[in-house]
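Progress note, project year one: complex with fe (ii) ion.
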Amino acid sequence: MQLHEKIPNNVNLSQDRKLLRALEKWQPNYMKWWMEAGPAGFQADNIYLRTAIDVGSDGWANFDYVRMPDYRWGIFLSNPEHERQIPFGDMYGKPVWQEVPGEFRNQLRRIIVTQGDTEPASVEQQRMLCNSAPSMYDCRNLFQVNVEEGRHLWAMVYLLHAYFGRDGREEAEALLERRSGDFDKPRILTTFNEPIEDWLSFFMFTMFTDRDGKYQLLALAESGFDPLSRTTRFMLTEEAHHMFVGDTGIGRVVKRACDLMKLDANEDVRAQGGIDLETIQRYVNFWFSSSLDLFGGEISSNAADYFATGLKGRAKEEKYPDHVALAGAYDLEVFENGRLLEKQIPMRNAMNEVVRDAYVEENQKGVDRWNRIIKEAGIDFEIKLPSRRFNRKMGIYGGHFFDPAGNPITDEEFNRRRFDWLPGDKDKIFVKNLMQPVLELGKMAHWIAAPNTGINGKPIDFEYIRRA
Ligand SMILES: [Fe+2]
Ligand SMILES: [Fe+2]
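Model obtained:
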């Protein structure tokens, strides 16, 4: 472990002068990007953050006060697995690659760049949120997510520099040049160009979009390209906190809505300064459907290629009995000539859908937790994940219209009911107006309940941010 170097790492960076020089050249550009596109404030303040200092079971959770620009963005790979074998695809059981296999070079670089691009994108999307944080605790969590997404960018840039030579270095520069929402140089994936201007959207993003990230990382953790597998394995340990922020954040907004409903049953939640459950449902509908698009097409020859070549597998490949997946089919509900019908898709072409299934299932557990809060309050309301056909922009359902239950409807019907189902300007303005900063020690904004516990065993009213 080389912690005291300019770039903390466990990849023996000091032994590779050429690579070290290339990364040291990239570093000032990264810092420039961070100051320009990272959190719009608080950069001089001391934030109580965790920093990865080791890949061991507790070494990565090292908490202390740090100014964000001084954060130790390091390069950490999970420990190598002895004699690891390619866990799926045509080369199932062969030794994993320690170098980029020449015939798959372009595909592999594309995978790494696409993953890498999402990391700085989310920091950019969230940069204004610190000015409307509902509490010091939440603001600290936002910064934790932001610095770790920054580290994930480092993780992908390391792979590009270490394994792809000149075009890798060019891609690494381009990762700092694109900007979320920019007309000329947008981020690669649509969801990562959506502005996140309020905290309800932030919690939705960390619940649904970061969880897409988790499933992409799980699929890459299976990769036959071992450095990619080891990098993503370690990223996953950090990612868990991001989803915790989203899941519990939405839970707290739900809880507050319920508390207000009980407090005054005659006055609606909005009039009492909370976010009503119907609005929360519309935000769920939007962010869930938008995040579903990130998994790619339901029937995908790309996904089949990635699987065949051993570059990208299924999340938790060991769960599946057949790692070659040449036999068998996936039953997919397709929409043809205005009708839904079941079709059998060759398993390899359905890999995106297999990963999407696992993702949907995990989200449902979070929704169940929110519904328990509502039920315990004695309120008759259930938050529901919309059908995976609802409001899709990509894949076989894109361009067709479905209600949240998944029934086909006309575009007129969809447009007539759009704002029953998706947040409209009225919702967005209402939610945005609630977003007034609350940074006094231990205080919470009116629209959100306090969390159950603080961070790292600290109390909720701990001084998570020390203003300079
Ligand atoms: Fe990330
Ligand atoms: Fe994340």
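Residues 149, 210, 213, 239, 242 surround fe (ii) ion (ligand 2) (CB under 6 Å).
The mean pLDDT is 95.
No further modelling is planned for this target in the current period.
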